Inverse folding.
């Protein structure tokens, strides 16, 4: 993340959606996720001198976002979830999306959102950090202040619960 203001704006623009989604998937609330994402970028801009390798900026940013969301949950406890559909920008331009693709994507988001709500806070956090953010189990354990065995247990439980949820949803 180079130091020029234009480069910073581009960095924020390139990463805002991803940071929001990381945070949202952990906290489960749009308004809180927006606030936390904003705090994440403030922290990042204040600490950009700590970034030794600019090529690793995305991973560094993801870890800061995950930690901020986890810290929020620790301070506030579990919070209620709200809809995300209005805030997610389409992956492709609207003119390129067929009605079928829009419906399918909406259904998939709904399944994911509902399935994640079934998990405990710790299961959801472990699953997202490991499977979505692709962090090694030892990093997840460090971020969650628990052992690797506990992380593996949370992830296994989350996967089982999520799989059962998807099986019940099948026609």
């Amino acid at each position: 993340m180079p130091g020029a203001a234009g480069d910073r704006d581009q960095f924020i623009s390139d990463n805002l959606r991803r940071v929001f989604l990381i945070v949202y998937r952990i906290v489960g609330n749009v308004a809180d996720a927006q606030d936390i994402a904003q705090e994440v970028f403030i922290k990042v801009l204040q600490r950009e001198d700590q970034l030794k390798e600019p090529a690793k900026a995305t991973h560094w940013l993801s870890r800061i976002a995950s930690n901020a969301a986890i810290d929020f949950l620790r301070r506030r406890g579990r919070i209620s979830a709200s809809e995300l559909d209005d805030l997610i920008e389409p992956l492709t331009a609207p003119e390129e999306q067929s009605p079928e693709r829009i419906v399918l994507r909406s259904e998939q988001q709904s399944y994911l959102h509902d399935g994640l709500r079934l998990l405990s806070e710790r299961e959801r956090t472990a699953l997202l950090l490991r499977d979505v953010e692709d962090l090694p189990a030892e990093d997840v354990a460090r971020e969650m202040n628990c052992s690797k065995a506990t992380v593996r247990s949370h992830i296994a439980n989350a996967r089982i619960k999520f799989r059962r949820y998807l099986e019940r949803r099948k026609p």
In short: The chain has seven helices and no strands. Residues 1-82 form a domain with the Rna Polymerase Sigma Factor; Chain: A fold (CATH 1.10.1740.10).
